[in-house]
Amino acid sequence: MGSFIGIDTHKDSLSCSAVDDVGREVDSVHAVNDGRGFRKIERFAQRVEATRIGIECSGSFGLALAQHLLAAGFDVREMPGQLVKRDRRSMAKGKSDTLDALLIARVVAREDKLPPPPFRGLTHDLKALVDHRETLLNEATRHRNRAHAILTQIRPGYSRAVPALTSARQLDAALELVEGDSGVRATILRDALKRVAELDSTAHVLEQQIDALVKASGTSLTQIVGIAAITAGRILGELRDVSRLSGQAAFGALTGTAPVPASSGKTDRWRLNRGGNRQLNRAMHTIALTQSHHDPRARAYLERKRTAGKTDKEAMRCLKRHLARVVYRRLADDRTLVLLT
Length: 341
Hints:
Layout: E1 3-9, E2 13-19, E3 25-32, H1 35-47, E4 50-56, H2 63-71, E5 76-79, H3 81-89, H4 97-110, H5 122-154, H6 168-177, H7 184-217, H8 229-239, H9 248-255, E6 260-261, E7 270-271, H10 278-294, H11 296-307, H12 312-340
Parallel strand pairs: 1-4, 4-5
Antiparallel strand pairs: 1-2, 2-3, 6-7
């Protein structure tokens, strides 16, 4: 009879536990998170005759290990952290890497529908590009805010000439305001504006790369109103493969658009879902917001919900849930088309 392995991953270390089909620990091992450690865990898995291996953080600290074990022929699954947290709360033994590995192994033993780990490829690259662009834009925003604060101090009323710092023309206009000024704040301002221009330029290059990868993926998501290359890249990068989900309901839960039941007695109500993948939830919100302004069908849908007694926020949540179904069907149809061809 084979065993089930759980692996808790960290930047420098790996903790591994094997259990039998009823959750009793068979053996455990610790290894360094590098090639030697991967081979050590591979030998451990062979010795305990691993049937299924679950890895927490298989998209980050455990990515290389997951790829190594997949190449060795093992059935590797991604371990959602929420499942482990739920089991940990039921125990009064504190927290340690060894205990986490054991809890992961027990979840792997009882759950046979865990998703596969991320694969290196197009969707993996898309996620990296979208995340990097987001980081650059956030950094550019910080420099813009610093530039606005300095301009307020040294050029009061500047906003009449330079209302924003979002275009190259506006950045040049802001530089002209301090031309010839050798003061400390003027020097810091010029440095901040230079960094904004560099970050915006790099983000633009990333956007072109994301657009090219989205087109190469063959997805039809961009045919939906409100989905451009960036949003499509975010969805594909976060989801990776629609086949890892059991259906529309699972996609709704993953995107945080499916409401959570909060009924009691004669009160039948639903509350906002604050769980799920927040990046996917953000993508759904972007689509819904865009459609509410530019798509007559979405505006009519929202009006029907308001007429039925929904508030503006509740109507928007209904639209997001509806759009999650639309997006899921498009993703599923795309995958079916790929399989047929």
